[in-house]
Amino acid sequence: MSNPPPVQLRLSALSHLPVGVERPTYRRSDLSPGILHVGVGNFHRAHQAMYMHRLFEKGSNRDWAIVGGGVRPSDTSMRDRLSAQDWLTTVVELDPAGLSARICGSMIDFVPVQPEALIAAMARPEIRIVSLTVTEGGYFIDAGTGGFDASHPDILADLGDRENPKTVFGAIIAALARRREANLPPFTVMSCDNLPENGHITRQAVIGLARSMRPGMEDWIASDVAFPSGMVDCITPATGPREIVLVRDRFGIDDAAPVVCEPFRQWVLEDHFPQGRPALEEVGVQFVADVAPYELMKLRILNGGHAAIAYVSGLLGIRYVHDAMRHPLVAGFLDRLEHEEIIPTVPTPPGEDLEAYYRKIVERFSNPEVGDTVARLCLDGSNRQPKFILPTIADRLRDGRSVEGLALEVALWCRYCAAIDENGKTIEIDDPMAEELKSRAREAKTDPSAWLRMSRVFGPLASRDAFAAPFAAALTALWRDGVSPVVERYIRGDSPA
């Protein structure tokens, strides 16, 4: 007997969805907007949108529904797909104990991807929070100084046509100007991107652009607009044909833009929302006075852990993260590096247990249902290493402690960027600096210092012999002996070199 045809996802079809698919218990007519979110990608729909969905399920705070927005061509494609299904999304949680699907209904509109439409929506008085997921690279950070990059072509375009901005920050400034002129209070700007001090970085971008785009507004923004920082976490793979087929065949839903994610979510927010906020503490969000300790815990133990397993796995030719975690060299390297060098640099945040947090990360990395790829962990190393690994090295050097394992991790990254794995297979380097990385990695085979001379990446660390010497020794050993023997020696407690 053949299965019934899948149900096309839309509001009118909710009652016809297969048994076992969780659907909203609230009505769309009960919701009104309070948040405008720019960057309606998979992570937003797996994370922030699901927190709001769960809050609406509790029967309150229904004046905080989400309106989508965007500034990129890909946002138009997402809007088109979601429009056809009344802004609903199927979210599948990839729990090894059993997959589950629920329909998320917390987004009630998505404004046309046009500057004026976005600015006008942000200027509406009922919008009290503008939130963002525009990727770590979307904040116009100057690689050399860490400050605002006023020379970026998109920023220059905004300065040339401030009524039709290309960036989300240009739109925010224009909308804030309209609210100020109308004597409306400013909205809170809340970054949901995975980068250190995301509130500070967002504030830096908005004020940096306002200084040239609308002189005189920057002081008002600095004094009157809130930019709370937050730490977000939920592994959310990209959606492709595999995920669309899974939702159709496993759950009987025809969804053009489903989301799959791990069952774990965490959100820690600085409690600074002058115009009010939804009561997200009712659904597990942690509101704290200082996000920094939680952020440091995640950036070093989780993101640093991803970096630790990425390049050794890539060099060994392993495709999936869960398979990597079953490999004794990968699991052993992660465990020793975390316990010997990473976790000791992390102060314990209030209410947390670092060892339990680490064990949970191992469980999450090992989840076979997620299907996370090693290639994803390896991409963009020139941006990720300075965020997730190099600060830990700097802290240990400051305290006079060994960085042998971390130097080996950097050497594995360098060896990976030579673009050939241990089996002689070509590796595609996915990084904005890919060509320079490949050139320097090959030069570093005989001159390890060539790798450290990338000042945009390493800065003053390159001149610290306590790091440069173990890095050079590890890289030389990787080329001479191969990846497996070097990592085996490190796991045993011997010198990798």
Quick summary:
With 497 residues, this protein is of the alpha/beta class.
Order of strands side by side in the largest beta sheet? 6-3-2-7-8
How much of the residues is beta strand, in percent? 5-15%
> What is the helix tally?
22
Radius of gyration: 24 Å
Helical amount among residues, as a percent range?
40-55%
Calculate the mean pLDDT score and round it. 95
Q: Could you say which overall geometry the principal axes of the C-alpha atoms support?
A: globular
Distance between the termini: 62 Å
DSSP summary, beta strand count: 13
Low-confidence spans? none
**Main pleated-sheet profile:** 5 strands, parallel
Structural class: alpha/beta
EC number: 1.1.1.-
Protein name: Mannitol dehydrogenase family protein
GO molecular function: oxidoreductase activity
Pfam families: Mannitol_dh, Mannitol_dh_C
